[in-house]
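Researcher: Next entry: Cytochrome c (Halopseudomonas formosensis).
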Amino acid sequence: MSVSLPRILLPAALGLALVGCGGPADPDSPEGKRQAVFKQFLQHSEPMGGMLSGRVPFDGEALAGHAEGLAELVEAPWDYFPEPGDSRQRNAALPDIWQQPDAWQQAIADYRQAVADLLAVTREGVDSPEQVAAPVAAVQQGCKGCHDGFRR
Ligand code: HEC
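Model: Predicted structure:
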């Protein structure tokens, strides 16, 4: 029994996971477009976090480049949040986005400000992790603060 039980349960668990997922969002849908932008957000914020935690060698110029990258994308996802209607695209957006539009706009504004603050620092030239630790942490908090409230 101790051997056969997992064999029975595993396919059932996988089946459930597939029903819940339903494949990636259509890349031309609003969901697919915003998710693609968020992936780019991550491609900039991840290496910055890595440099500050010591996981990736520190490179001030590269870090400044990632700050520029985030700044270029800072307005990119928000137009791709139309009322979901009967969309069946895979997504992790919470209904609070549409039910609490002021809080949603505030989360966007906080993030926008954090990115602008980081950019103001990195444009002066980045020589040390200490210089950028606080503004990078504020950007990461901007991501997390929004995800906590508005992402499943
Ligand atoms: C104002 C809100 C907000 C901010 C700020 C925000 N996100 Fe998100 N993020 C979301 C929402 C909502 C989703 C879910 C979108 C969906 O599933 O369609 C999401 C999804 C994602 C995803 C998953 C994309 C996918 O492939 O499904 C990643 C990765 C991500 N965000 C990274 C980031 C990073 C990194 C930052 C900061 C640099 C950030 N986000 C800032 C709201 C935000």
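Model: Note for the record: Confidence is low (pLDDT under 50) at residues 8-20.
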